[in-house]
Specification:
Elements: H1 2-34, E1 41-42, E2 51-55, E3 65-74, E4 77-88, E5 92-98, E6 103-104, E7 108-115, E8 121-126, E9 138-146, E10 155-163, E11 165-167, E12 172-174, E13 181-182, H2 190-194, E14 197-206
Parallel strand pairs: 1-12, 9-13
Antiparallel strand pairs: 2-5, 3-4, 3-14, 5-7, 6-9, 7-8, 9-10, 10-14, 11-12
């Protein structure tokens, strides 16, 4: 008789204990889901390629040199220009950046420019921390620039490398804009309106008669 009575009681206790464990686990999951980071990033573009590549073969008959040009900007306008490094003309030109991390604590990034005709070159760029963000960090992204017509002895912008900006209303860093820029819309883009610091990497495809300022 006692045995018959004890078994249902034990089964009831086991059931209550199991329900309690499940509810406790659900409570922990809910608490975890409600945890939010101090900041987040928002990006409408998804440029995942490590290297940007450009077909410049149409200029092979009219240009013999590639002159690297890097222009630095803030919200007041252009603050510096580096120009003068020469590369042999090629069919394709590649631009890459290292390190590739979206969020980093290092204030330097290296831009690599490589023609398929031979050796390339590398230049270090100084980054600026995102203004007004709750923590000090450097958050940049690249945007390719589509060129409608390649012209010799003229500066051709090829890529933008810009800083995210802090949205104090939503407490996030933003880098919202077109996946690809053009020479026509570059100055009207969201990046130029809001990015506090950016570089425009381009080139002059020279016929060897253009004046070159040493880098």
């Amino acid at each position: 008789m006692y045995k018959k009575t004890i078994i249902p009681i034990l089964l009831t206790l086991v059931t209550i204990l199991s329900v309690s464990i499940v509810l406790k686990g659900q409570g922990n999951e809910t608490k975890s889901a409600e945890t939010k980071p101090k900041y987040a990033t928002e990006q409408k573009k998804t440029q995942d390629d490590a290297v940007l590549t450009y077909d410049i073969s149409s200029l092979q008959d009219s240009a013999s040199l590639i002159i690297l040009v890097i222009r630095e900007y803030n919200q007041l306008g252009m603050v510096s220009e580096m120009k003068g490094q020469r590369l042999n003309m090629a069919k394709n030109l590649s631009i890459g950046f290292s390190p590739r991390q979206s969020v980093q604590t290092d204030s330097m990034v290296t831009v690599y420019v490589r023609p398929d005709s031979g050796n390339g070159l590398a230049r270090d760029l100084v980054l600026k921390p995102v203004p007004d963000a709750p923590e000090t960090f450097y958050l940049y992204e690249k945007v390719p620039i589509r060129v409608s017509a390649l012209r010799p002895n003229t500066f051709i912008p090829l890529a933008l490398y810009g800083s995210f900006w802090w949205d104090s209303n939503y407490k996030i860093c933003r880098f919202c804009g077109e996946k690809e820029l053009t020479e026509e819309n570059i100055m009207e883009s969201e990046y130029f309106k809001h990015s506090p610091h950016y570089y425009v990497i381009g080139a002059i495809f020279s016929d060897n008669t253009a004046r070159v300022i040493p880098l």
